[in-house]
Amino acid sequence: MTPIVFHFDVISPYAYLAFEHWPEALVGCSYVVEYRPVLFAGLLKAHGHKGPAEIEPKREWTFRQIDWLARKLGLSTMRIPVPHPFNPLTLLRLSLACGPAGRMPNRRIVEALMRHVWQAEGADPNEPARLATLRASLAPERDPDGLEVKAELRALTDAAVARGVFGVPTFEALGRLYWGLDALPMLRDDLLATQAA
User: Fold this and answer.
1) Domains of the chain by range and CATH?
2) pLDDT over 90 at 120, yes or no
3) What count of other Cβ atoms lies within 10 Å of the Cβ of residue 25?
4) For 44-68, how does the pLDDT look when each residue is reduced to its tens digit (9 = 90+)?
5) Largest distance between two CA atoms of the chain
6) What span, in angstroms and rounded, lies between the C-alpha atoms of 36 and 103?
7) What distance in Å separates the CA atoms of residue 109 and residue 20, rounded to the nearest whole number?
């Protein structure tokens, strides 16, 4: 099986779409996924970029395209949260706190976080009662607000920048980076070619 690292931030609608879509997009490939949370804002800062939601015409285009892509991919339950952008730190730290130090979150945890953000009828992802319910359902092993978890997320973001990751979602496989939802067909072709060799 080919290892794939999925660099993600729950703030990204494209990361959510990629998360939901890739099992279908990579049918026929043999792979195992490691989920690595990173702070998208940290990537943007490191590379001197603004996020799509920070540029009004791009924000409008992004949300229109996301709506179309969600319908095209059969994800009719997807809803853009209000507010957006929002601060994803609490959710990213929670993903890491659900396991011991150094262990990345599994698909079940990432799914719970992604759906908390993107399938909640536009609700605020950081609304305290909703966050408390999510946290109780995931039962983290460590304190999401503890220094250890905060340092771990910073280190993962710094490591992603050092590897050349500049946006989310980014798939890392076969010694290469594949950026964005639209990179999945390219990743599939490369996986099939390598696995057939």
Assistant:
1) 2-196 (3.40.30.10)
2) no
3) 16
4) 999 998 888 888 899 899 999 999 9
5) 52
6) 10
7) 13
Q: Which residue in 67, 114, 62 sits closest to 91, CA to CA?
A: 114
pTM (predicted TM-score): 0.95
The single-letter code of the amino acid at 197 is A
Can you tell me the distance from the alpha carbon of 84 to that of 75, in angstroms, rounded to the nearest whole number?
19
Q: Which residues pair with 176 in a beta bridge?
A: 173
**By percentage, how much of the chain surpasses pLDDT 70?**
100
Q: pLDDT value at position 168? A: 98
CB 19 within 8 A of CB 186: no
* CA–CA gap between residue 190 and residue 56 (Å, rounded): 36
Are 47 and 158 contacting, i.e. CB atoms less than 8 angstroms apart? no
- What are the distances in angstroms from CA 167 to CA 42, 75, 89, 184? 10, 22, 16, 15
Residue 98 confidence class, pLDDT cut points 50, 70, 90: very high
Please say whether the beta carbons of 17 and 70 come within 8 A.
yes
